[in-house]
């Protein structure tokens, strides 16, 4: 359960986000994958600043 006392909000979130072909996908795995995608995107956008050619 996630609780925000200042806003008086609470959420009951399960650790499993969904199942895909019988494989359980967890929320923390989704966060890690999104962080990797954002990091790769930022590297790609800033490659010219550092003189990197692909």
Give a structural overview.
There is one protein chain. This protein is of the alpha+beta class and 54 residues long. It has one domain. Helices cover 35% and strands 28% of the residues. The protein is built from one helix and four strands. It has one helix at 27-45, and strands spanning 2-4, 9-11, 16-20, 23-26. A two-stranded antiparallel sheet has the order 1-2. A two-stranded antiparallel sheet has the order 3-4. The chain starts with a strand and ends in a 9-residue tail after the last helix. The model has no long low-confidence stretch (mean pLDDT 91).
Explain briefly what this protein structure is.
With about 55 residues, this protein is of the alpha+beta class. It has one helix and four strands.
List the helices and strands and how they pair.
Blueprint: E1 2-4, E2 9-11, E3 16-20, E4 23-26, H1 27-45
Antiparallel strand pairs: 1-2, 3-4
Radius of gyration using CA atoms only: 18 Å
Low-confidence runs of at least 5 consecutive residues: none
* Order of the strands making up the biggest sheet: 1-2
Supply the helix-strand structural class: alpha+beta
The tally of structural domains comes to 1
Could you spell the SSE succession in H and E letters?
EEEEH
Q: Supply the number of helical segments.
A: 1
| Binned strand content | 25-35%
Given the C-alpha coordinates, what overall shape results? flat
Helical content stands at 25-40%
Mean pLDDT: 91
Largest sheet: 2 strands, antiparallel
| Annotation, overall tally of beta strands | 4
End-to-end C-alpha gap: 45 Å
């Amino acid at each position: 359960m996630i609780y925000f006392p200042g806003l008086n909000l609470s959420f009951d979130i399960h650790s499993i986000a969904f199942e895909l072909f019988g494989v359980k996908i967890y929320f923390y795995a989704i966060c890690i994958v999104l962080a990797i995608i954002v990091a790769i995107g930022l590297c790609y956008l800033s490659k010219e600043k550092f003189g990197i050619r692909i």
